[in-house]
Amino acid sequence: MVATLAAVVLAASSAASPDIAWFQSARLGMFIHWGPVALRGTEIGWSRGAQVPVEEYDSLYLRFNPTAFDADAWMDLAKRAGFRYVVPTAKHHDGFCLWPSSQTDYDIMATPFRRDILAEISAAARKRGIAPCSYYSILDWRSPDYPLGSPGGKTAKENANMDRHMQVVLAETTELVRRYGLKMLWFDGQWEAPYTRERSLAFQRELRARFPKLVVNNRIEASGRMQPGDPGGDFATPEQHVGEYNTKSPWETCMTLGDQWAYRPNDRYKSLDQVLTILVQTVTGDGNLLLNVGPDAEGRIPPEQTKLLLGMGQWLARHGQAVYGTRGGPFRNGAWGGATRRGRTVFLLVLDRKADQLSFPELPARVRSCRSLVPGMTASVETEGHGIRVRLSGTRPEVGPAIIRLDLDRDAWSLGDLPGPTQTAAAG
Ligand code: FHN
Fold this sequence. Notes:
By secondary structure, the protein is of the alpha/beta class. It is about 25% helix and about 20% strand.
């Protein structure tokens, strides 16, 4: 009888908390910034009333007909790229909804395209074992109920009704989670004055009550107005930079491949080595990476973005064991690179191409084996004081880190967080 009661309590408690273990194990998500603004090639939301007059921006949907859109092709690419979750902008700051919203006619069904893009992406994702999620902007510069407008929240609307706006926010986010079985909501647009701490707390309370396992980011919190002890999101969201090493609370870096979130013709793109460096720095810091694509107005992911994603996927196909299902550490990361761990295994991902000796001052464990996972390289390890010295030799890979696998005599998570290497180049 007692065992049964414990099982019930355990089931209830696990059912009542956000599934953050899934999120941290997934490690890599595909961000998608897309909407009628792709017709203009300017930034979603921000170019409304700035580079693009409001009236013109708000009528783009009448011409939005992405006939080349193929959710299966997009999610095939996502799978090949190694993404484990997908986060499309269901509704950005411009208020346009990529799904048939019950709360507005300003949505995909009012365009010539008339297909539920979110449903197609979510279904194609789930079919490939990719978790469907969604971005949602709390602010809405187009809605008459939201008090601030374009450009960029710098204008005020008469007769706004923020209470009614928050009812729409709750209704639409509830609809998104229920209809598309979303595992995570990526909130944004939380920084403006109308979204007060009180509104944020009320919204969080209601959303959590409806979906206790749903993962939500920290932008559900009214920026800078939350008090210590307030509830909040489940992970932090450093943007366009890699977050600090942190194994105590979940975080995710979001990053563009080019300069713009939404589609921009002839955008300037990062190199594959830069993308892999960002990935390595993020996961060795115990973070997730949400990497963005901006599809064009026809529904195509630009070839430059596709090429980068496939390059990352090829690297992950060879070395994903050092990323998926791992946690960051135990050694603190830095310019040298970093480490990930799973069970009794530690992976060293060495970015510094000149580092052929790594002296780690502390390692309260024995190393049972040490080997390079990169062809053409060898690695060896010796005890050095309370730590170890790892030596690398051979030809570094063209792109991405050298990877060394250490197998220990104990669980690597139990080691906590240890200092990174003090010396990374050969003596003399
Ligand atoms: O204003 C948005 C921006 O357009 C983009 O969606 C990024 C993605 O994280 N978030 C906001 C800027 O912080």
